[in-house]
Amino acid sequence: MSPFGRLLLLVCLVLPLYAVEKYGSCLQGPAGNPGREGNPGTNGIPGTPGIPGRDGMRGEKGECVSEAFEEPWRPNYKQCAWNSLNYGIDLGKIADCTFTKLRSDSALRVLFSGSLRLKCKTACCQRWYFTFNGAECTGPLPVESIIYLDQGSPELNSTINIHRTSSVEGLCEGMKSGLVDVAVWVGTCSDYPRGDASTGWNSVSRIVIEELPKSF
């Protein structure tokens, strides 16, 4: 390259603007290597808090739910027993047993088990039943059992004297909590004459009382 050309190249590299204005053109050299990435800048200043949003729509009124916790059911029962009651009465109370009822929303299951007998020479009927504090059950119906003997020959009926272990059993609802006098009675059936009744002959008689949850 001539000395003039080297001088022109130097001028284009050092003073590009001057060379363009002076000579009208300049040779472009090859592109340089890309530079390295710079260091990350420092964090900016935090912005100011935004404007609070608008209130949302009012929700629907909720329902108040009360959760009931019931106490666990505890067994509650009692038994009264007698040996050889041998009650020969035809009308009246046979035996009673006092029971403590814990809840008003419960039922009482009652059972009388003992020897019963009825004899007569003509048709007769006897009724064994429970009372609760002196009154028969009305929730829903009385607790009772009956024995009926039809009319037969006087000779045969006069010799019938069968004592059988029988039971009177049922449920009674609608009684308040507290002491309950539970009793077994013997009486007549409606529209039938009474006979010769016997209760608890030569054997054990018992009343069993149990408090049960009432079914809804």
Characterise the protein shown here.
With 216 residues, the chain is mostly beta strands. 11% of the residues lie in helices and 38% in strands. The protein contains three helices and nine strands. The strands form two sheets. Strands 1, 3, 6, 8 and 9 form a five-stranded antiparallel beta sheet that branches. A four-stranded antiparallel beta sheet has the order 2-7-4-5, with no helix packed on it. α1 (3-14) packs across α2. The longest helix is centred in the N-terminal third of the chain and has 12 residues, at 3-14.
Provide a compact summary of the structure.
Helix content is 11%, strand content 38%. The chain is mainly beta. It is rod-shaped, with a radius of gyration of 54 Å.
Number of strands: 9
Biggest beta sheet attributes: 5 strands, antiparallel
SS field, number of helical segments: 3
The dominant shape is: rod-shaped
Which oligomeric form is depicted? single chain
**Strand-residue fraction?**
35-45%
- Percent helix, as a range, is 10-25%
Computed over alpha carbons, the radius of gyration is: 54 Å
Class by helix and strand content? Answer: mainly beta
Query: Termini separation (Å)?
Result: 119 Å
Unreliable stretches (pLDDT < 50, length at least 5) are none
Helix-strand string: HHEEEEEHEEEE
Average predicted confidence as pLDDT:
84
